[in-house]
Each structure stands twice: as C-alpha cells, then as structure tokens.
Amino acid sequence: MRGHRVTTRLLVVTLLFSLLVSVPLAGTPAAARQDEQLQIAFSVVGLNFPFFVHMMNIARDKAEELDIELIELDGQDNSATQSAGIETMIAQGVDGIVISPKDVEALAPAIQAAVDAGIPVVTVDRSVTGADTLAHVGADNVRGGEKQGEYLMEILPEGGQIIELQGSVGASAAIDRSAGFNEAIADHPEYEIVFQQTAGFARDQGLTVTEQALQANPDVDAIVAANDDMAFGAAEAVAAAGLEIPIIGFDALPEALQAVQDGTLAATVEQFPGGQTSGAMEILVDYLRDGTEPAEHTTLIEPAIITADNVGEAERAQEAGIEVSGTPEAGDAEATPTA
C-alpha cells in the first residue's frame, strides 16, 4: 500500500513538471509549435466591405508564401463579434493575431487579453489604443486626408461649398482621414464644409446621407468621402438629382478605379492594402520564428492620390481591367517611433 502511495506521488509530480515546462511565458514568442506550422488568426472589420475582402485575399496568399496556417475571422462590422473572435482564438491557443480593429477603443480589452495570454498582436490598417500590441502597419490616414484636401483645392481653385462624408464613429481611419482633410483646408476660408456627417463607411448610408445633404445644399461644389463605398453612394445620389459634382473617395477599390477612369469619381486615395497586410504578417511571423522585434512600433505607408491621369498606377489597376503603368511615387513605407 505504501509503495502505491509513493508511485502516485511521483506520477503527480511528473505531470506537474511536464505542464510547467510546456506552457510558454506570457509576452514571449510562442514556442508550443516549434516543430509545427504556425497558426495565425487574421481578423478584419467585416467581409461585407470590398476593401477587407481584398485584405483577406492578400493574407491568404501571404500565409501560403510564409508556410503558416491562417484562420480567417469576419468581424461582421460589430465590435462585440470581433472581440468574441479574439476570445475564441485565445482559448484555441493560436500563435499570433493580425487584426484591423473596428473601433480604436472597443477592441482594446480583447486585444490586451490576447497579449496577456502570450499571443502577440499586430494591428493593420486601423490602430487601437489601450493595448500593448507588438506593432502597427497601416497607411498614413492623416496624410491621405490631407491629399484629398490638396486635390480638392487643385480642382476648385476659387473655393466652394463642400459635403464631407465621414467614416464609422470610433474608427481610427475615420478619425485620421477627417482630421487630415480638415487640416488641409483649415487656412483657406474660401472652402466651406456645409455638411459633415458619418455615413458608416457604407454605400447605402452614403446614398441616404448625400440625398439629405443635397436637399439642404443644392449648390454644393464637391463631395469628399472617407472611403470609396460612401463615394459610390454619393455618386448615385448626385446622378439621381441630375447634378455634376466632383467626388473624391478613399481606398482605390477596383470599382473606384473604373469610376475614376470614366469620370464618375474625380479621384480616390491609394493606401496600398496589400503592402499593409504583407508587412504586418511578416513582422508577426519574424517575431514568432526568430524573436525579431520590429525596429519601430508603427510603420506607416504614404498614400497616393489617384486620378484619371495615373489610374494605371494603382495597386489594383490590373484587377480593375486597367492597363498597369507603374506605381505611384508616394508609396514608400516609413517607420514611425512609438508616441
């Protein structure tokens, strides 16, 4: 009987020791899959947006190139849904997460929970506040908004009345693009924003909000939208009203490139989503495999204005059926020190 108790104690000690050595320390690169394929989750705001469909497609291709297993998460344009997806990934024990968070603050608790569980997180396109992420890779959205303003002043040198369609409330991209646009025209009182409202980054809302704006401001001179989907909705409203108003979008979607080519949109902003996605995944995989930390926390890609003159230079020109003619000059990534 005594020998049985000793054997039982030895078994318990052995099991406890094996558990201790098999659990990676929080905050260190995952070691649990050293001899297996890395498992990375890629979470986007919502696959109802063409922009994020493209990012997911790029992530899928990049995962194959990097020889990693990709778990695709659709946030369904809902912060609670996106947070729940992260919680599931924590329970599943993935090696890392790349995420474009719907809200700059609402996703912070779930992202920090992942970090606390030893899962490094890299944000892409949209950043988050209040969470200790490994890195952020995105377009310089403030600069993109500035470029919208600069192009507006180029096509309307005498000034005019402007409708501004803003993105989803709380989204870092929406906040930054609006800030950049307003900063660009701040010292030019000849440009008056007569209507400024969110249209949720959605085409149907862009249509409805623009219809309301035009009813109150029939003599408006231009419309600036924080993404192409809202710009498409605005274009429908403008056409239905029998008006010709220049519209500037943001994202350089294939449909937007075609619209720029045929004159439906005056311009769009290229933010190189493929470069963002590839860069974010490379940073995460390098960290997981080699412990290589990024030189700087934040890497921003300089956006480019796309007009009928350079539409062939857009990242997705070929996808839009447009002859490729090079790449915009302002497409270089720049590492930015953490604030």
Structural summary, described in words:
It is a single chain. The protein is of the alpha/beta class and 339 residues long. The chain has 2 domains: 39-138 and 273-301 and 331-336, Rossmann fold (3-Layer(aba) Sandwich); 141-270, Response regulator (Rossmann fold), CATH 3.40.50.2300. It is 42% helix and 18% strand. It is built from 10 helices and 13 strands. The protein starts with a helix and ends with a strand. The model is unreliable at 1-35 (pLDDT under 50).
The fourth-level CATH homologous superfamily of the largest domain is: Response regulator
Low-confidence stretches: 1-35
Regarding CATH, which class of the largest domain? Answer: Alpha Beta
**Radius of gyration from CA coordinates:** 23 Å
The helix content, as a percent range, equals 40-55%
Spatial order of the strands in the main sheet? 2-1-3-4-5-11-13
> Biggest sheet: strands, sense, closure?
7 strands, mixed
Strand content: 15-25%
Short synopsis of the structure:
By secondary structure, this protein is α/β, with parallel strands linked by helices. The chain is built from ten helices and 13 strands.
Question: Which terms would index this structure?
Answer:
4-stranded parallel β-sheet, single chain, Rossmann fold, elongated, alpha/beta, 7-stranded mixed β-sheet, 339 residues, disordered N terminus
